[in-house]
Amino acid sequence: MTRFIALGSAAVLALAACGAPPPEPADAPAEPAAPTSPVEPGAPVSAAEKLTAQGFGPLRIGMTRAEVEAALGPDADPEAVGGPDPDSCDMFRPERAPEGLLVMIEDGVLTSVWLSRNTAVETDRALNIGDTAAEVKRVYGAAAEVEPHKYVEAPAEYITVWSTADHQSAAARGLKYEIGMDGRVQTIAGGGPSIQYVEGCL
């Protein structure tokens, strides 16, 4: 299953009186800072919106589906099937998530976040879709675990980096980069043991 989204003007005071302006009180409060401008469409994503082993933006692995939907909205395409048994495992793009980003919900809990066909969102190591396998390995060094791809020949492969020693328990966290036959990143998954799945919920 493959299915895959981000203030006001400052007032200017001018003194029109003739002569010197009256002295400012010593304990006058500082002027409030001008509000920031809204993020324009196409602007770079913030550091808080990097894909990490812990989640993405407001999403954190271990959240309930209700918390995921409160953070980024409900399923953007509720008519599509997100897995063979959606009650036990479902994948979908929340309405306010970037294009190309899916969440995996298992037994009502967020277990991983997946990225595909999206060059705007990157990982906390500044890697994203289209980067080379060589670059991923260079960035992670000896921490990168490399496995052959399940369906296609080399140079296709999986590069996984774990931030915990245990790779199987619910507390495990990591990032997996799927490399295609062109030697470039096709998908990235961040989260718990479910990042090891090779075909959606399977």
Notes on the structure:
There is one protein chain. The chain has 202 residues and is mostly beta strands. The protein has one domain: protein yfey like fold (Sandwich), CATH 2.60.460. The protein is 8% helix and 23% strand. It has a 7-stranded antiparallel β-sheet, with helices on one face. Strands 1-2-3 form a 3-stranded antiparallel β-sheet. Strand 5 and strand 6 form a beta hairpin. The chain is globular. The chain starts with 50 loop residues before the first strand and ends in an 11-residue tail after the last strand. The relative contact order is 0.17.
How would you describe this structure in keywords?
mainly beta, protein yfey like fold, 23% strand, 10 strands, 202 residues
